[in-house]
Fold this sequence. Notes:
Blueprint: H1 19-32, H2 39-60, H3 67-90, H4 96-121, H5 127-150, H6 162-178, H7 182-219
Amino acid sequence: xxxxxxxxxxxxxxxxxxxxxxxxxxxxxxxxxxxxxxxxxxxxxxxxxxxxxxxxxxxxxxxxxxxxxxxxxxxxxxxxxxxxxxxxxxxxxxxxxxxxxxxxxxxxxxxxxxxxxxxxxxxxxxxxxxxxxxxxxxxxxxxxxxxxxxxxxxxxxxxxxxxxxxxxxxxxxxxxxxxxxxxxxxxxxxxxxxxxxxxxxxxxxxxxxxxxxxxxxxxxxxxx
Length: 224
């Protein structure tokens, strides 16, 4: 009888387009990961990827060829961020709440660091970087609210997840090399779209909160 393969999807609900291919890739990487690499090391690698992204954006303001470094940074960030928690489940050594708290904290610090990179790159349109951080921060808050109210932890917004977003940003970075200001337009439009999704997401979360309130009141016999 073959040994049962570890379930690396535990504790997280995925709805993104690439979830099937991403999960199979993550499973393969977990299976060949050296024993000395821990989840914390992977988290640190992902954090370093964010710094690389920001450095590429900063120097890209002087020479757009540096955007290649940012694309490489997104690959590093995906590697660390996507595998840290999944590796723990693969090895059957998860620390659910420790890992969750660390992941949220590092994600927030990472997006701020990347935001600074966009701040320096966008030059005359620096306010867009603040809109970007605001929108992303709001999305993180919605994730925490949904988890608290529904007990379902999801990092995706409908069919869009962090991996898809990284691919889109990298695609626009490539286009930016040939068509200047493309990245600025994408950052603004993308942030506004994210704000729209945040609003619709919050409405659904509030409805779920109302339903949970009614259910808890009914269980306690408080409803008339």
